[in-house]
Amino acid sequence: MSKNPAEHDDIEAPRRYVLEERIKFIAAESDRVTISNHAEDRMIERDITTNMMFRVLRGGTLEGDIKQGRKPGNWEAKMVHSIPGHREVGVVTAVLQSDRLVVITVEWEDWRSR
């Protein structure tokens, strides 16, 4: 019997520093990171390179809310990092229980204030 996703709303989010370190650990091996089609499109549109994206995932800080993912035990969070010579980049990612990341989107952090 499958459970209703709403039954998992009371699952406590991981501590910020724990999730941030987990993202960095997983991103250290690029084959454990999947870039969604949406994120690829935004990378092209916003001129954010794969190299920039990995710099954010490997060296950034977790900002904003930690949200429960589509499945229990999966989490969505945004890593942010200032890229020298550029601006501050945000990478929204799903952190899967299987120690994989799915990049949902990428953005310039000052883009949203326009």
Encode the helix/strand succession as letters. Answer: HEHHEEEE
User: Biggest β-sheet, characterized?
Assistant: 5 strands, mixed
Q: Bin the helical content.
A: 25-40%
Average pLDDT score: 90
Summarize the structure.
By secondary structure, the chain is of the alpha+beta class.
Give the helices and strands, then pairings.
Blueprint: H1 16-27, E1 33-35, H2 37-46, H3 50-59, E2 61-68, E3 75-82, E4 88-96, E5 100-108
Parallel strand pairs: 1-5
Antiparallel strand pairs: 2-3, 3-4, 4-5
Helix pairs in contact: 1-3
Task: Please explain how this structure is put together.
- This protein is α+β, with helices and mostly antiparallel strands.
- It is built from three helices and five strands.
- The chain has helices at residues 16-27, 37-46, 50-59, and strands spanning 33-35, 61-68, 75-82, 88-96, 100-108.
- Strands 1-5-4-3-2 form a five-stranded mixed sheet.
- Helix 1 packs across helix 3 (50-59).
- The radius of gyration is 14 Å and the shape is globular.
- The relative contact order is 0.21.
- The model is unreliable at 1-7 (pLDDT under 50).
